[in-house]
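__Record contents__

***
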Amino acid sequence: MKIVDVAISQIGTAEPIGDDKYIKYYNNLTGSSFGTTVSWCAMFVTYCARHAGVPTTVIPNFASCTTGRTWFKINGVWHSPKGFNPQAGDIIMFDWDRSGNCDHVGIVEKVVGGNVYTIEGNTKGGRFVDGVRRKVYYKGYKCIAGYARPKYGNSVPTVKGDVCQVELPVLKKSSTGEAVKTLQRLLTTKGFYCDTDGSFGANTESRLKAFQRAVGLTADGSCGTATWTALLTKTDPKVASGTSNEAAVKSRFGLADETIKYLKQYKYGEDLLRKLATKG
């Protein structure tokens, strides 16, 4: 399968500078402005899909694992790991802390017996350096969040910039349920932290309005078609710069400016801030 072949061709690419090509490619492809310290496993999958000629109607451009999973769910290709038999070309996602969010993503290379062999970007290898590596997991591994089985055989060619149109409910203050949880997770991945409790209260309304202002929408606190589309397809420049990550961490954990400054001195400080800010 071509997407697997592309992934294999990238094995060995590693930080500190090898991974930059995936981040730069994603920025050029989508008009985003991610820095070179951002986690890039989802960007690697995007890179492989585009270089394999897979259209965005089959695998979207995505930089967030949770956003990617939401897209796969909406398009009916997401599968729970229980009782599912993965195969080459499937997209595998992981939830390391089993919080309900997706933390990492890779491509299934093959399945042999009870083991799933994958190719992943932004994963540890020799000397603990993040890079593109082969990995293997037992099919029953509890941190596997699920799989997407893209409809490769039903591909419809698309052009750069196409937006996937889907039907989602209009949400507003007092709404509840799984759709609200999806909204809250998407807001969090954009840098506007929300508790993922499935209840559309004042906090969610405030964060939604802030996101709407950031992307140039009317800040009415109602999540309709335009806002859903922006959440699923746009990258807020503030998130890429790291500014909103710092603000979210300070707000959520009550950290002082000096503490934030101290964290940023370390090699993976920016990545830690991003993970703290977006953790659901």
